[in-house]
Amino acid sequence: MTDLRPRTRTAADRFAGLCARIARPLPAWVAPSFLGFCLINGFTFGVDLVLLTIMYGLLGWPSPVAVTLGYAVAFGLSFVLNRWLNFRSHAPVGPQVGRYVVAVVVNYLAFILGVGSGLVALGVQYHVSRLVAGACEGVFMYGVLRWVVFPAPPAAAGAAGTPARPRRRRMPRPWT
């Protein structure tokens, strides 16, 4: 017997629909998952700043502790929300967490410390250097999330906005 009740859309379905609607009038190279990444990571950056303000500004914790905890919570939240809402991954979480931790460490060393501190050492104003480092960080992290941490399964290769190649049907052999 078939179920005639309408299927309830999940939060991930609604989020993907919203990102697809926003991406529709934009250039073709702007993938809906990139917009989802920007929305999620913009939100988690806000969480990072709120936690920093509470821990450092209100509670008086040492800056390195407040910055590190805010950064860790924001990146943990980013992983969960991107996995659930944006990339809708159902792959085993263990290997994904491992790849994500490596990406976050590389991101921190290369962009937060490397690019940001390097530009300041070259005389660039520190807010400008942080914005440049943040832009580099965003491009790097989106690429890593999309193609390394949460790669599309082979059957869903076309789900990210690119058409999947049609599968060739195997014809039955007449002699079997």
State the shape: globular
Please give the count of helices: 5
Summing up helix and strand content along with how strands pair, one would put the structural category as: mainly alpha
What are the low-pLDDT stretches, counting only 5+ consecutive residues below 50?
A: 161-176
**Biggest sheet, open or closed, and with what strands and sense?**
none
- State which percent range the strand residues make up: under 5%
The end-to-end distance, rounded to whole angstroms, is: 35 Å
Tell me the helix content. 55-70%
- Over all CA atoms, what is the radius of gyration? 21 Å
Arithmetic mean pLDDT = 85
Beta strand count: 0
SSE string, helices as H and strands as E: HHHHH
What would you say this structure looks like, in words?
The protein contains 5 helices and no strands. The longest helix has 29 residues, at 93-121. It has helices spanning 11-23, 32-58, 63-86, 93-121, 126-149. By secondary structure, it is mostly helical. The radius of gyration is 21 Å and the shape is globular. α1 (11-23) crosses α2, α2 packs antiparallel against α3 (63-86) and α4 (93-121) runs antiparallel to α5 (126-149). It has a domain at 30-152. The chain starts with 10 loop residues before the first helix and ends in a 27-residue tail after the last helix.
